[in-house]
Amino acid sequence: MGDLLVVKDLKTWFPIKSGIIQKTVGHVKAVDGISFTVHKGETFGLVGESGSGKTTTARSILRLIEPTEGEIYFDGINVSKSKGRKLRKLRKRMQIVFQDPYASLDPRQTVNSMLIEAMKIFGVTQSRSEAHERALKLLNVVGLSEEHLYRFPHEFSGGQRQRIAVARVLTLNPDFVMLDEPTSFLDVSVQASVLNLFKDLQKKLDLTYLFISHNLAVVHHMSDRVAVMYLGKLVELAGRDIIYNSPRHPYTYHLMAAIPVPDPEFQKKEVLLTGDVPSPVNIPPGCRFHPRCPYATDKCKRKEPSLTEKDGHWVACHYDIDFKSGEKQA
Amino acid sequence: MREKNYILEVKDLKVNFHTYRGEVKALNGVDLKLYRREILGLVGESGCGKSVTALTILGLLPQNACVIGGEILFKGEDLLKKSKEDVRILRTNELATVFQDPLTYLNPVLRIETQLKEVFMLNKKLLRQAVIAQKAHGKNVTFSSLLSWKEELATEPSDLKVSRAEIKKMAKHLCVDILGLVKLPDPERILRQYPFELSGGMRQRTMIAMALARRPSFFVADEITTAVDVTIQAQILHLMRELRDKMDASTIMITHDLSVAAEIADRIAVMYGGNVVEVAPTVEIFRNPLHPYTTMLMKSIPNVKKPVKTLKSIPGTVPEMINPPSGCRFHPRCPFAMDKCRKKRPKLIETIERHEVACYLIGG
Questions:
Q1: Closest residue, chain A, to B302 (C-alpha)
Q2: Which CATH code for domain B2-94+216-357?
């Protein structure tokens, strides 16, 4: 398995402007130096609470938002330095499915013209009839049929709209698709079928996914490896089962313990975090998690831990904590 | 015997909405019972009528809604037969709600103190009694001690003079106390703040405090954890469990998330297409789901503790409520649908002890 996407020390800051001359008075550090690699053919899950910078990360990779610093390599090509035609060529290979299918589809275009437009812009097909044929084929792939081709978005349900958004992405034959909370707008009974569709497509078309969600159960179901974000930084990255069953960062541990389990007989440990996520404008000094961390020491307040690896398991914590006994080692 | 323990009984409730596209048949005969001091989880997908059921009980339906039939018995009295004013008074004294998005329901230009104090000031008589108890009997009045006060009220001596300032001071004291009860850190400071200065979790706690301030006997929590993060959700669910033991209130907890209901509810009612299709104690419904919709819904949600390769999805989509399917509204998506299901809606019947289900496959 090769590395398809390499992100190195990515930073995306949004300036806060104030006063008549719009002087920059501070920054919202939405993404503040994260590095990870996505292997070919895998589903890489990115989880975190709202405001942790998941969506900004995805958009920065596509350069829908200009990153402040850092490098992004897609299949060996430097995305952060690409411009014009070169960037467009790259974007054809990496696509995104947005969260809200009610906002991401043009209400005045039929499904047919939407799909054909995408193909025309990127020059995927030579003729109109070929484009039409391809549109029809893809509609079948995502579980819709010919009768849906000439309808407008308002005639579809949420689940169907998300399928159309997926079909539109597939028109370009991408290698890499970012799924940004693709089911959070859908009903529970429909969510399952869309998730299954993603899994099917991955097998059939050999796709690589970056799967973003705040729903930890859904990410667990979809991902091979999972990264946990907190306030613009990665705190832990490892294989799915390791992250969910034996996390090493205290934030991940508490996050996993907070997942509601659809089984009333499951005996849960009651471990609660105190407080809220701080604002990304005033990031706490030292380890970002220290104000909420029950294990925090003086060192955590002063020094920010770096993400270090041990057997493919990346953790950003000064200590090695045994959560059962509460013991910690430096 | 058990009949006496119902605080609320909804019988065959039907509600329509007039819209320019036609009549939306939102509730199609809802049956629901709520015991004293229990948390009932009302679960269903969007548009199934969970919130409409709650709004109808609270008498807060919008102008274009119309109750066509049914009864809502609250402590034996039919709420639908009461005048609007009577229901309003009942809402201030007995019924309370917390909605999904706290920012919409808090006044953005008033400090938390002003808004919370207003709730306490509604009952000046109680505040006066509290001041007397503190002054004459040297009691330390807290909000928790007020909870057991309802009957005691009349017997307190009332010849003592109590000034307005003292009443206001007592209200402030109770504000601080109740914010502590919902586990907000530094209540004094929060009282001085405006809603926008609080985080989502803190706002939701403030809303819960405001709802509880009236010492309600019936409490609706409408998707209170949907807008907050998982770690905050765990905190709020924990708080709700604690409050259940402290307050003498019955709660309807509306949620679209079966796992949230599993965490907190004593019983779960599953709604689909404007009907309650299954009601049972939480453990029972997860062990032994009877309605095909409940069974399929449980298989369609991913469970971290019991991972599966592929999720079972329910074919089709949530029904259109303007032209809903005939008979059982689930029949177009049901793999076991029979002729009978298309013609007549099955009634909610008790099949096993305390386990009710509306399906012809079972018992009907």
A1: A217
A2: 3.40.50.300
